[in-house]
Write a structure and sequence with these properties.
Function: In eubacteria ppGpp (guanosine 3'-diphosphate 5'-diphosphate) is a mediator of the stringent response that coordinates a variety of cellular activities in response to changes in nutritional abundance.
Largest sheet: 5 strands, mixed
Keywords: GTP-binding, Nucleotide-binding
Helix content: 40-55%
Shape: extended
Pfam family, one: ACT_4
Organism: Ancylobacter koreensis
Family: Belongs to the relA/spoT family.
Strand order of the largest sheet: 1-2-5-4-3
Radius of gyration: 36 Å
Length: about 750
């Protein structure tokens, strides 16, 4: 276990002004607080916070962060309190420790809603001070290094949580070495056989290639030095998880991978990066499509480097990253590399703010936090955050040259919403590099995108399945909800207007607005929407405006005009009038359907109808009413782009009061005397009622019959169809579904 003076020396290597007394005080405090506590491995518990602090010294973090690492388990696992830590150290260090205590309680791989809410809390906790995240990542890294001591039933859960949440967060913060180690440790636990297989193949490859890496390093160094450049060339093989992921993504075998080894070229100045690139591309042929310039267009986490792949010595593909030493430090340590001290401060926790909020990684974090308020549910936030964590990026431009960074597979719709939510909502088309292109096109690096907009346009709900950014998805959902609300409000207004006229009153929005409070709503639109959705009766609205009104009179009830339509008034259940049955709306000749505003006119879909036993949906046509379709009806396809019109409805049939319902079947029978009689006989014997019949001859051999029959339910219908298929004269029989 690391001694007290050893920890101080580790910090002093990069911070000559370290507060040795503060570090000593934290070391002793944490060691005494944890006392005789043991880890699962049997080691003293204090060894864990000490190792976490050591990891953070490798990232060259300030004194306050190192102290917080030493104390991060004290509030949770010992008798220490926040007040005591504030008094002994500082309020800033106390806030860091308390933030870590809250995060420790989170379970990020539980049920979806709970996981989403916990991730929301995690990011909120690190929003005020990102050092909380740095300590948490180091804490998770040490826990993963010692995962073998954790009970076996918990290992996979911890590893999956690390792979899903913490490794991507480390990557987004630019801490690539930590991300890769977290991924490898998780991969080793979750897929041990695959991990060992790749490790064995890497070892065999190393034995076969001998000194290949060293020879490529020498040849690259010599070629660059000949041009007068001072550079350090380092080679390394990729980690098992990185190799596995590439094999999965490209569906290739290990032997087909040509970029197992990667090399880094470190120079002093940015200009030398491009000079070294020129040397490499002059000496060895470039692999087309494998050059990326992250210096001129940095990643969101401040990562800067030149990436290229060449066919190098021995016809071996060589991946190269060319960067300055400062760029390399940021690439290795990410947001931790921004631990700059204000005014020469020592970062002792007395008011210093060591992490610059101008860094790209911190900017991404702030944008993510800003989106917390935009999702209507924790699940939406979780979905958005995971999308942002896991996607790589493409860089596109507006016609005026503004750079827009998007995830891979982003579309012009994502681009439009990245520019501004209003642009996305009004988008109707796009030009990519000057050419009219579909809005579903996949954007590529360097594309110039111009969004064509139109006033009054609203985004189709189907866009939600096309976009890849959380911002676009959240905005489309909001717009869809607003459109649905507007539809219901428009429908509700018409219902209220009609109810007021039936009551013999004059409709006045001013009077209605004054009565909103009595209806327990915030606005007039809320009242209309509630009526349209069936949450509020129009009679209640009339009474709120005209308290003297006693209710509708029986003689005011009237059926709507049009075949198959009727209207329900106050006091009636929602009944559907069956075409072909007497028009008198007697309860015995109608069927209740749950889930619909009882004041709306309702009818069955033409050409087939629906029968009890069918799964049914209602399609809302504002100003007209609702049409009931069986769920299997092909006619529903035309409403796929309008999910706001779909209503959840179901049958409410009394078994002791059977009724017939219309259904349409098509029978193809042989064209011979008596065939119609046999079909009619089957229907009659099964207690079906033929209501209409149309016949046509496709050929001299067969006759097609379209028959409207009345049946009790789906089982009754299927029995008739089965019996018809047994008759020799029947070639085929099918039900019509619209």
């Amino acid at each position: 276990m690391m001694r007290q003076y050893e920890l101080v020396e580790r910090v002093r290597r990069y911070n000559a002004n370290t507060d040795e007394a503060l570090l000593d005080r934290a070391y002793v405090y944490a060691m005494r607080a944890h006392g005789t506590q043991k880890r699962a491995s049997g080691d003293p518990y204090f060894s864990h916070p000490l190792e976490v602090a050591a990891i953070l010294t490798d990232l060259k973090l300030d004194d306050a962060t190192i102290v917080a690492a030493l104390l991060h388990d004290t509030i949770e696992d010992t008798d220490a309190t926040r007040d005591e830590i504030d008094r002994v150290f500082s309020p800033q260090i106390g806030a860091l420790v308390e933030g870590l205590t809250k995060i420790k309680k989170l379970d990020l791989v539980s049920k979806q809603a709970k996981q989403a809410e916990n991730l929301r809390k995690l990011l909120l906790a690190i929003a005020d001070d990102v050092r909380v995240l740095l300590v948490k990542l180091a804490d998770r890294l040490h826990n993963m290094r010692t995962l073998k001591w954790v009970p076996e039933e918990k290992r996979s859960r911890v590893a999956q949580e690390t792979l899903d949440i913490y490794a991507p967060l480390a990557g987004r913060m630019g801490m690539h070495d930590m991300r890769e180690e977290l991924e490898d440790l998780s991969f080793r636990q979750l897929s041990p056989e695959a991990y060992d297989s790749i490790l064995n193949r890497l070892q065999a490859l190393k034995e076969n290639n001998g000194e290949l890496v060293a020879s490529i390093e020498r040849e690259l160094s010599d070629a660059i030095a000949q041009k007068g450049l001072s550079a350090i060339v380092k080679g390394r093989e990729k980690r098992p998880y990185s190799i596995w992921r590439k094999m999965e993504q490209k569906s290739v075998a290990f032997e087909q991978l040509s970029d197992i080894y990667g090399f880094r070229v470190l120079v002093d100045q940015t200009e030398e990066c491009y000079a070294a690139l020129g040397v490499v591309h002059t000496k060895w042929p470039l692999v087309p499509g494998r050059f990326k310039d992250y210096i001129s267009t940095p990643k969101q986490n401040d990562y800067r480097s030149l990436h290229t792949t060449v066919v190098g010595p021995g016809r071996q593909r060589v991946e190269l990253q060319i960067r300055t030493r400062l760029m390399h430090e940021i690439a290795e340590y990410g947001i931790a590399a921004h631990a700059l001290y204000k005014d020469g401060g020592n970062g002792n926790g007395n008011g210093a703010d060591p992490l610059t909020r101008d860094s790209g990684a911190y900017a991404w974090l702030r944008r993510t936090i800003e989106l917390l308020a935009e999702g209507s549910s924790p699940e939406e936030f979780l979905e958005h955050t995971k999308l942002e964590l896991f996607h790589d990026q493409v860089f596109c431009f507006t016609p005026k040259g503004r750079l827009i960074t998007l995830p891979r597979r982003a579309t012009p719709i994502d681009f439009a919403y990245a520019v501004h939510t209003g642009v996305g909502d009004r988008a109707v088309g796009a030009k990519i590099n000057g050419k009219i292109s579909p809005l579903v096109s996949e954007l590529q690096n360097g594309d110039e995108v111009e969004i064509i907009t139109a006033a009054g346009q609203t985004p189709p709900a189907a866009w939600e399945s096309i976009v890849v950014t959380g911002k676009a998805r959240a905005a489309i959902r909001r717009a869809t909800r607003a459109a649905v609300r507007a539809q219901y409000a428009g429908l509700g207004k018409k219902i209220v207007e009609r109810a007021v006229v039936r009551a013999g009153k004059v409709f006045s929005e001013e009077k209605l607005a004054a009565s909103v409070g009595r209806l327990a709503r915030q606005s007039l639109e809320d009242v209309y929407a509630a009526v349209g959705r069936g949450e509020m009766r129009s009679d209640d609205v009339v009474k709120a405006v005209h308290p003297e009104w006693t209710g509708p009179r029986a003689e005011e009830r009237a059926a709507l005009k049009g075949e198959g339509w009727f209207e329900l008034e106050q006091g009636q259940s929602l009944k559907f009038k069956i075409p072909g049955i007497e028009s008198d709306p007697d309860p015995k000749t109608a069927i209740p359907i749950r889930g619909i505003n009882r004041e709306l006119p309702v009818r069955f879909a033409p050409n087939g109808g629906a029968v009890p036993g069918d799964r049914i949906v209602g399609i809302l046509s504002p100003g007209e009413g609702i049409t009931i379709y069986p769920i299997q009806s092909p006619a529903l396809q035309e409403f796929e782009e309008e999910p706001e019109r779909w209503l959840d409805v179901r049958w409410d049939v009394e078994e002791d009061d059977p009724q017939r319902f219309p259904v349409q079947i098509v029978v193809v029978a042989t064209n011979e005397p008596g065939s119609l009689a046999q079909v009619a006989q089957v229907i009659g014997e099964r207690d079906g009622n033929i209501e209409n019949l149309r016949m046509s001859s496709r050929s001299a051999d067969f006759t097609r019959m379209v028959i409207d029959i009345g049946v009790y339910d789906l089982r009754h219908l299927n029995g008739i169809l089965s019996d018809l298929r047994t008759r020799p004269v029947v070639s085929s029989v099918e039900r019509v579904n619209g």
